[in-house]
Design brief:
This protein is an alpha+beta fold. The protein has one domain: 4-Layer Sandwich (S-adenosylmethionine decarboxylase), CATH 3.60.90.10. It has 3 helices and 5 strands. A hairpin with a 2-residue loop joins strand 3 and strand 4. The model has no long low-confidence stretch (mean pLDDT 94).
């Protein structure tokens, strides 16, 4: 491979930590589940089933598996923190999913 050679990515990925989020919003698994579905729609990835939400040790994880990627939220409500992980097959724009999640959690 030469210095000028380029490889097109097969998948696009974004890992982002959102802070100062309302803790009540981060505790609501129904809201978080609807949020990952909306974000997947914005990216153009239909889910393979409903979101899965699990709680334990004061934290919550919500995941939506899609044929061409996934959206996962890891929430620490007491700290007002949400880690967002979005993977989508290129050329999908994962930034659209990040925008949906960021806007709705900031409300």
């Amino acid at each position: 491979m030469t210095a000028d050679s380029r490889v097109d990515a097969t998948f696009n990925h974004c890992l982002l930590e959102l802070t100062s989020i309302n803790s009540e919003r981060l505790r609501d698994t129904g809201v978080l589940s609807a949020l990952v579905v909306a974000a997947a729609g914005a990216v153009g990835m239909p889910g393979l089933g409903p979101p899965v939400a699990r709680q334990g040790a004061g934290e919550i994880a919500v995941a939506l598996l899609c044929l061409e990627g996934h959206i996962v939220l890891h929430c620490a409500p007491a700290e007002g923190v949400c880690l967002v992980d979005i993977v989508a097959r290129a050329p999908a724009d994962v930034g659209k999913g990040v925008d949906v999640i960021s806007r709705r959690l900031a409300m």
